[in-house]
């Protein structure tokens, strides 16, 4: 059965039609902005949300997510597994370059898993850390749901220690019957560049949680507060939104990934397997600048 998902294009056209131009002080670029959008997919039939109105990276979002779950804090580590995008944040963001906590070239500081895997815990006068990612994923392995299967990278007390605050900042899993569902929260989505990656990452995380629990993936929902397109991306984005989306591919995890230990030590971008996906070159490529 052919399944076509138009949610990304519907949100993009809404952003173009209803968005408001605002100044962004971090990047120095104006961006057209819309507040509030939820993307939702039923993953039980294996469908996987991939933006099809332009060829988008498929392995990079997977590699980036693996780096988050492993707690990487250096652009070289991300690049080694296939996510080279972090060099810009590590080496070209003015505020981070001036930050005394930056350890040198390619250092990203405590970003994403660097925060959630080193969460401060106060015990009397002693401060230690707890690994919240490992805790949640090992509870999933035991199929334990106490309504608190939550991973968050959002810790305002640690923002000064990293190059970038997390965008998709919280993952909340829930077990119901024989399925695992995922609710994901993003404060900010750069629609042309970050959007396609975040949609895929929400799906992959739900599949990973279900695999560890020995259950089936169910529903994934991604709640986004601030959707935007930068002024230097805008004309190209309008052009992209004139295109019609193509059928969704199917996705499966390789049998190599069964435990959290496998995610930490074995998993590569090649362990996310796509099928019914042969249209990456159907549309002409659109290259977007990164507003760093």
Short descriptors:
292 residues, alpha+beta, Thymidylate Synthase, Chain A, six-stranded mixed sheet, two-stranded antiparallel sheet, 10 strands, globular
Fourth-level CATH superfamily: Thymidylate synthase/dCMP hydroxymethylase domain
Query: What class would the helix/strand composition place it in?
Result: alpha+beta
How is the main sheet built? 6 strands, mixed
Instruction: Determine the mean pLDDT.
Output: 95
> What is the CATH architecture annotation?
2-Layer Sandwich
Strand order of the largest sheet: 1-2-8-7-6-5
Note the overall shape.
globular
Number of helices: 10
Terminal CA distance:
41 Å
- Percent of residues in helices comes to 25-40%
The CATH class, by name, is: Alpha Beta
The SSE string, one letter per element, is HEEHHHHHEEHEEEHEHEHE
Determine the CATH topology. Answer: Thymidylate Synthase, Chain A
**Strand residues, percent:** 25-35%
Poorly predicted runs = none
Number of domains: 1
How many beta-strand runs? 10
């Amino acid at each position: 059965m052919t399944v076509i998902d138009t949610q990304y294009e519907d949100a993009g056209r809404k952003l173009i039609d209803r968005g408001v131009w605002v100044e962004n002080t971090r990047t120095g670029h104006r961006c057209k902005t819309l507040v509030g959008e939820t993307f939702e997919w039923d993953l039980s039939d294996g469908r996987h949300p991939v933006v099809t109105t332009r060829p988008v990276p498929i392995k990079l979002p997977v590699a980036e997510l693996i780096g988050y779950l492993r707690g990487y804090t250096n652009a070289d580590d991300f690049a080694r597994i296939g996510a080279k995008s972090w060099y810009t944040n590590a080496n070209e963001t003015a505020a981070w370059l001036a930050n005394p906590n930056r350890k040198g070239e390619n250092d990203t500081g405590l970003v994403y898993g660097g925060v959630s895997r080193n969460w401060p815990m106060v015990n009397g006068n002693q401060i230690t850390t707890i690994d919240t990612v490992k805790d949640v994923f090992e509870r999933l392995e035991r199929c334990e749901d106490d309504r608190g299967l939550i991973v968050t990278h959002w810790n305002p007390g640690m923002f000064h220690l990293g190059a970038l605050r997390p965008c998709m900042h919280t993952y909340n899993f829930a077990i119901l019957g024989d399925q695992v569902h995922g609710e994901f929260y993003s404060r900010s989505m750069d629609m042309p560049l970050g959007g396609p990656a975040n949609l895929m990452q929400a799906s992959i995380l739900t599949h990973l949680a279900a695999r560890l629990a020995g259950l089936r993936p169910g529903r994934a929902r991604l709640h986004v507060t601030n959707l935007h397109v930068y002024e230097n991306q805008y004309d190209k984005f309008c052009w992209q939104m004139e295109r019609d989306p193509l059928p969704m591919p199917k996705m499966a995890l390789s049998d190599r990934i069964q435990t959290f230990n496998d995610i930490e030590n074995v998993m590569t971008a090649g362990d996310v397997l796509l099928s019914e996906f042969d249209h990456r070159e159907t549309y002409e490529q659109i290259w977007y600048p990164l507003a760093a």
